[in-house]
Amino acid sequence: MKNKIIGKKLLKSILMVFIMFASFTNYAQGTQQQLSKIEVDSLSDEQVAGYRDKIKEEGYTVAQALAIAKTRGMSEIQAQKLQTRIRNLGTSTSNQIKSRDTSVNTSTSENQLFFGLTGQESKKTKKSLLFGYDFFNNPNISFTPNLNVATPENYVIGNGDVLSIDLWGAAEANYEKKVNRQGAINIQGVGYIQLVGLPIKAAKSKIKNYLKRIYAGIGASANSYNKVHIAVSIKEVRNVQVSIVGEVKVPGSYSLSGFSTILNALYAAGGPTENGTFRNIRLFRGGEKVADFDFYDFLINGSEAGNITVQDQDVIIVKPYAKIVTIKGAVKRPGLYEMKASETVSDLLTYCSGFTSEAYKQNVVIERINGIQKEIVEIPFKAFTEEKLKDGDFITINKVSNQFLNKVSIAGAVFQPGNYEYEENLSLETLLVKSEGVTKEAFLDRGIIVRSYDTTTKETVSFSLRNNNENLLLKANDSVYVFSKEELKEKEFITINGAVNKGAKFPYMQGMQIEDLIALGGGLKDGADATMIDVSRRLKDGRFETISKNFDLKASGSLQGSDNNNFMLMPFDIVSVRYLKGYTEQKTVFIKGEANFEGEYSIGAKNERISDLIAQAGGLTKYAYVEGAFLTRKNNKVEDLKQQEMIADFSKKDTSSVTEDEIKQKKTFKIGIDLNEILAKGGKGSKYDLILEEGDELFIPSERQTVKVEGEVLSPSLVRYEKGKSFKHYIENSGGFSANAKKSRAYVIHANGDIKTTKRFLFFKSYPTVKPGSVILIPNKPENKNKMSTQQVIAITTGLATLGVLVKSLTDK
After folding, report:
1. What local confidence, expressed as pLDDT, does residue 269 receive?
2. CATH of domain 493-579
3. Average pLDDT, the chain
4. How far, CA to CA in Å, does 84 sit from each of 51, 144, 147, 712?
């Protein structure tokens, strides 16, 4: 039964494959019929633009795509019409097509079949190092023959050509005759004229001789009254069938215009592959070789030698290359080049457009494959025309050295620093004149000449700009440096801090007084004491007992002068302006919640307390929940920052401590207070009545009627507060403890911020008291990494049982 089912499934699968294959065959046949029926005249501009864009997307030129399409069933007339339509399209049409999502964009497969493309012939536009290869990949050029020019004199008449014969003068007539399959044209009154195989020039002469039979004036002199002039031209060029084989991108049989040359045919086939030859492209006609075409000769010299017009049934063969060499470095066009057997290094330099200006031309270095290994070959300049290259040669053209033969340089405090030409007996004085002399900031007492003998051996020669240096001669590659005064002196500055608007360091200037520096510092702040200014000055007395000398000075608050006009500041002085005794900026605190006048208040005294703030706020409302009041304090004091650093340092040594990031993230702290004690008789000024600090916020909540239960309970929730109910009452109203609850670590956070934990004595737990607004938190049990799995327990149990049986058997004996 099972085998029957399998057999039925297999038969069904085979039938489905057969149906799909039959459908595909019918589709392909229908497409071929569609190709033969396509009419370009029926296509809209949008459809033509869609075909053009598809050609570019596939990496082809229009000429290449049409050549492939003609080999797959498209007629020459339809191809020419489509090419004309595409040529007449403007770029605006293309942009419109891209902006509109028409049906042309959805017929990709139809476009491919229209041009005979399968997708496998798609050409990538990557840049190739092989010289000549990218010529055939350029989508912006076309090598389709121009049919609107005069017929070439060497064009050979063939079957299918349409000739236009015009007569004018004493007689007028026009004949359009197509060369028939027998190779002749038929003119009434003249008969058949055999033209196949004749060049156009010879064909004109023959037609002229035949027409003399009925137009005697053709043979008359040019001045004769009965002179009949004659002109013969090709009106429609036949198509020729050419086979292109070998190392080309799209080999096959192509239907080309009779004007096409070898180069046109190569372009239609996509050009040679990277393994194909560009130097020896051969044309065979009737089994005989009739032409050799060197594509490099065409690219470099523009030579058309060998690029003959193709004829019907011609065969173009592109064989693999024989020799490719690589050249890199200081040449104008580095890359890969195909070389003929007789060509030399000089020929290669011609192909790559020669050396760059930085090239070292004395010799070139070649890495050459010699049997089973490589070797280095150096070719001197004089042997460039003699040394023949081998397949696989890798040539490197080095650059000239960066070293100079006749250079001296000058830098520093001169008007025109830089490099200068070295001449024999060049003196330092002459070089200073060339550099337009020294600046006023130059240090005249000493300059330095750095003289280099090689990369490791150097020496210095000193000089003075106060002397005449005509006799101080320089050498090649000398470097002269003129120091500035600022370079040889420690940068002098002066500092002001304290009760000024812009405390900072300023450059020192001679003659500076206290008021000058205060002005540079933005003037005095409000609260500055101009009579209390300290100046600290560096000492240079050679003793170890003192570090600096300090001065107590006074300044004018209006900066108009003072009694210290004779006191001049010195470099590196530190000026400190003090604040008035007891000066303190206002400090504010906040009271929020159930206060009669909540808001911001200023601290009147340094020892102002919570009770004072409540009094200022007009006391509490009747809805205030006093037990839930708490104080929030900012963590922005200098001592707090120092404390954070100490905690962070400790946390690095103790992995169980909080991390440094956790400490820094906490900007405020919640302080639990007992507001009942503060408001009670004798509570003012007591230990419960905390002294306020800048930024403190006192929050008085309204009456609370719920208790929040979170953590490891079955249903975290808000539970109605009932006076006298125990801790477990609220747990039970939240579904009870979960399996992962750590009961011994349960704790309660009261509304005022106080935290109470569960206490334990022997086997008894004492849970904390719950108040209105409290939060009960039940932590989870930490994961026991050492807990044994069921399999481990079974294994140990089995082992113990086996051990017990063994012991029993031994004791029974």
Report:
1. 86
2. 3.10.560.10
3. 78
4. 13, 12, 12, 82
Q: Cα–Cα distances in Å, from 642 out to 50, 646, 647? A: 73, 6, 9
162-236 carries CATH number 3.30.1950: yes
17-21, 598-602, 662-666, 668-672: which range is least confident on average? 17-21
Give the start-to-end residue ranges of the domains of the chain.
Answer: 2-126, 162-236, 240-318, 324-397, 407-484, 493-579, 588-700
Q: Are strands 239-246 and 252-257 parallel, antiparallel or unpaired?
A: antiparallel
d(CA 678, CA 685): 8
- Tell me the pLDDT band of 144, cut-offs 50, 70 and 90: low
- Alpha-carbon 727 to chain mean position: 63
Distance CA 230, CA 208 (A): 7
Q: Are strands 324-329 and 394-397 parallel, antiparallel or unpaired?
A: parallel
Q: Which residues contact 301 (CB under 8 A, 6 or more apart)?
A: none
453-511: pLDDT as tens digits: 877 888 989 999 888 888 899 988 899 999 998 888 888 889 999 888 888 889 888 88
SS3 content of the chain, % helix, strand, coil (to 5): 30, 30, 45
Note the CATH architecture for domain 240-318: Roll (3.10)
Burial pattern 603-622, b for ≥16 Cβ within 10 A else e, equals: beeeebbbbbbbebbeebee
- Site of tokens 């795509």: 65
Say yes or no: domain 324-397 is CATH 3.10.560.10.
yes
Write the class of the CATH domain 588-700.
Answer: alpha beta
Q: What is 407-484's CATH superfamily? A: Outer membrane lipoprotein wza domain like (3.10.560.10)
